[in-house]
Every structure is written in structure tokens, then in C-alpha cells.
């Protein structure tokens, strides 16, 4: 009989310890979850809309005549502002395309941004840039993300080899980072005043 009482007491203590351990694990998990939510909120407090890149103030989205220079823009490369009524098609533009394009391509490119495009602005003139590798990385990301509403364009007036823009957003790269580039496309494409326009 003593053995059965001892066994009952032991089983009761084991159940109590098990319950306490479950409670401790639950509280620890809850604490980790609260910390994770706090960190996530802190990281996104400057970016509540979920878009990537530095926010750029777009003072105007007005159309201007294609006989005048558009802008001025609040970033280089531009991430929004005054622009022409026509836009550029989705594709990879090479430096060799520039002579055949109008004088101020930014006016057309900003209109593309207004339609939800993401633009990869690249500058092969930055010292130490492996142009072939840079272009290949951009092309790979464009292909991997479907190519829809994506433009790559040479832009020699910036001081980094690569920048990405969407409407009101800019992300500069000192070297290409395919995963981050892909995330920018997925987060920012179609996030513009006229995302359904071509």
C-alpha cells in the first residue's frame, strides 16, 4: 500500500513538473515572439507600407511637353516627378541605344515609374565595376522576376554602379546583390499612381 501511495505522489509530482515545464516553454516562446514583433516593428517603423528603399519626395506627377527638360528631381536617378506623356517599354537598354533615344530619357522613364515599373539604373563608368557581370546580374534578376514592368537603363551621372527605383523609392548598390534586387522588384513593382497602365 505504501508503494502505491508513493507511486501516486511521484506521478503527481511528475505531472506537476511537466505542467511547470510546459508553462515555462510557453512563456519563453511568448517572450521570443514579443521580442520578434518588437524588432520587426522597429525595422519597419520608417516603412509602414512595406516598400523597400529610401523614400523620395515626389513634388509633382505632372506631364510636361517633351520639348522641355523634365524635373528637377529629388533624387539621382529620379524616382518620380514631372515627366512626358509617353513611357519607355520594358527591356534592357544598352549604352549603344542612347544615341537613338530622345534628349531627355528620364522624362519617359519617370512616366514608366508612374505606371508601376521598377528601373535598374546602371553605371559601368564607376571605377572597379565589372560591367559584363553587372549587366548579367541585372538580366538574371529581370528574367527571374518575369520581366514585366522592368527596365534596365544606363545612367552615368550617378556615383554608384547600380541603383533601383520605383515610384517614390530609391535603393543604391555599391555592388549588385541579386537577392536584395529581387526583393525590391517583388515589393515595389506596381506600387505607383497608375499601376495598371502600360
Give a verbal description of the structure.
The chain is an alpha/beta fold. It has 2 domains: 1-45; 54-188, 3-Layer(aba) Sandwich (Glutaredoxin), CATH 3.40.30. It is built from 4 helices and 6 strands, in the order αββαβαβββα. It has helices at 2-44, 105-114, 131-144, 178-188; strands at 54-55, 91-92, 118-122, 150-154, 162-166, 169-173. The protein has a 6-stranded mixed β-sheet. The longest helix has 43 residues, at 2-44. It starts with a helix and ends in a 10-residue tail after the last helix.
β-strand amount: 5-15%
- Please report the total strand number as a whole number: 6
Q: How many structural domains can be distinguished in the coordinates?
A: 2
Categorize the overall geometry: elongated
CATH topology (fold) name of the largest domain: Glutaredoxin
N→C terminal distance:
86 Å
Which structural class do the helices and strands define?
Answer: alpha/beta
Which consecutive residue ranges, at least 5 long each, have pLDDT under 50? Answer: 38-46
CATH class assignment of the largest domain: Alpha Beta
Percent of residues in helical segments?
Answer: 25-40%
Please give the CATH architecture of the largest domain.
3-Layer(aba) Sandwich
State mean pLDDT (0 to 100 scale). Answer: 87
Oligomerization: single chain
Lateral arrangement of strands in the main beta sheet = 1-6-5-3-4-2
Main sheet, how many strands, which sense, barrel? 6 strands, mixed
Q: Helix count?
A: 4
Radius of gyration: 27 Å
